[in-house]
Inverse folding.
């Protein structure tokens, strides 16, 4: 495959979605890496050494924002360890409007999805009652375990309990959390369906194998316009020294196999996200990245924005 062909595929993946010009509600990607980011701490593998050598770009931990230009509001999905840098991206995208979001939605109690809340506490900005939307077990966990309970006691955050499959309405968009199977040591795990004035987004950053879920992922993708879904591992070869059964995410190759018979239009709705530092999709020059794009799928990147 020629360099020109590789570059063409890469820039096609970066192309913005302009199919809805009259909607002022958009989803902005603020990070695409797995919980520990890219590069990952103490990693001596070639994948991370590329970053240290200037041969690859670092990536923030997975997070999305919903921006409503009409109401002037913005909502964050996941409070990642990179939240301070991600809020700067959000502020720039909102043309300098206030950096703090109007609310934060948390999917579950794993490191990359909620620990950014610490930046709202007294050691950092000492925020004032920022709404944080969580499921019941997650709410109980934050209220009864330090240091998170201090955020509640000092009213740095204001917890709002969500319920499975119950819609939450805002001025120009609505959303519902839905339970997904995952390692639930401290809380439930949810994905989100987000409905704008014209289009619908599915966000599932963390989930166990598709076969472990009573919901059919094909049905969800067919019923939405964009699907930001778990792509932690490209295949089973990435963790040779660990039991892959302990981290049973759906491999990218498994997801692609499930959608093999679908059109490229359907496949293009899938934006792979939540990439482990070992995942070759972090490098647009790899054969894996090229294969994904050739098949019609998209690879999420920080700054990707779609109108809904």
């Amino acid at each position: 495959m020629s360099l020109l062909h590789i570059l063409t595929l890469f820039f096609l993946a970066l192309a913005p979605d302009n199919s809805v010009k009259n909607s002022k509600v958009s989803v902005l990607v603020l990070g695409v890496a797995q919980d520990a980011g890219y590069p990952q701490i103490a990693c001596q593998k070639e994948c991370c050494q590329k970053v240290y050598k200037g041969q690859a770009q670092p990536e923030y931990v997975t997070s999305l924002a919903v921006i409503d230009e009409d109401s002037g509001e913005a909502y964050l999905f996941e409070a990642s360890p990179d939240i301070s840098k991600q809020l700067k991206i959000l502020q720039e995208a909102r043309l300098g409007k206030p950096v703090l979001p109007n609310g934060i939605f948390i999917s579950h109690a794993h490191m990359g999805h909620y620990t950014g809340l610490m930046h709202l506490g007294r050691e950092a900005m000492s925020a004032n009652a920022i709404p944080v939307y969580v499921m019941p077990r997650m709410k109980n966990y934050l209220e009864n375990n330090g240091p998170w309970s201090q955020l509640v006691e000092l009213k740095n955050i204001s917890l709002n309990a969500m319920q499975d499959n119950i819609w939450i309405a805002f001025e120009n968009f609505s959303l519902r959390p839905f339970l997904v199977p995952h390692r639930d040591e401290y809380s439930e795990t949810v994905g989100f369906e987000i409905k704008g004035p014209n289009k619908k987004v599915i966000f599932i950053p963390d989930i166990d194998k598709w076969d472990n879920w009573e919901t059919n992922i094909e049905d969800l993708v067919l019923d939405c316009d964009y699907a930001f879904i778990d792509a932690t591992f490209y295949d089973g070869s990435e963790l040779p020294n660990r039991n892959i059964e302990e981290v049973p995410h759906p491999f990218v190759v498994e997801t692609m196999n499930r959608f093999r018979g679908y059109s490229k239009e359907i496949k293009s709705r899938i934006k792979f996200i939540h990439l482990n530092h070992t995942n070759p999709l972090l490098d647009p020059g790899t054969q894996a990245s090229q294969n994904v794009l050739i098949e019609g799928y998209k690879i999420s990147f920080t700054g990707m924005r779609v109108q809904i």
About this structure: The chain has ten helices and 14 strands. The chain has one domain: 3-307. Residues 1-21 have pLDDT under 50 and may be disordered.
